[in-house]
Write the structure tokens for this entry.
Amino acid sequence: MLTIAGTARFVSDLHLRAERPDLTQRFAVFLADTAAANVEMLFILGDLFEYWIGDDNLAEPFNADVCALLRATVDMGTRIGFIAGNRDFLIGETFAVAAGIKLLPETAIVGAGGTATLIMHGDTVCTDDLPYQEFRRMVRSPEWQQNFLARPLPDRRIEVENLRRRSAEAMQGKTAAIMDANAAAIRTALEAKGCTRLIHGHTHRPSHEHIQLSAGTAERWVLSDWDTGRGDALEIGPAGVRRLDLSR
């Protein structure tokens, strides 16, 4: 368990990309504020980028700029932990070393505010979306990733654009309930890890709710995305838990 004695912040689903410089600017302001507030550790819970086609694309100017923003924040004293999302699961050690961030497993436990807190991207608890879970298993396999990363960068970009288009088309045929987190999967995850707080993103449905577990009550915080006219962060410190509105 990562124990945070001071303040921790959590964000997810920024979907940064060159076509949206406003998002990158908002992120830069947020990182500067995070460092100025002496936040001990920032956790990015996936989909920092709209897509990531491999660490060998780090030299691309936009990617290098985001990497530099992260490194500057770390150099000012705020540690950064990263859990991969469904858009940027190919981020690897080369990027992590350059940015100064720590790659975390798909679920991690953080001791923040005196509470054992489970953090994840959130797609693993969307168990009702069976086609997505099948796709996730395929692209997370070492064999698929090895084959994908062996292809030239232009080919990878084309493939990702095709995947994004097919994903958008598939979402149009799914109900909101299917794409949301499954209540039983949430309870199972919390009880398996012995946690009483869950923080995740992915669903783009910011919320806060209390969940009844077999041994008591837990709470679930869902972070918003940043690319639909909104954006938030969760902060946990000595004063408790608060949601930060970053949409302005």
The helical segments are 21-36, 61-75, 93-99, 130-139, 142-149, 153-172, 176-179, 183-193.
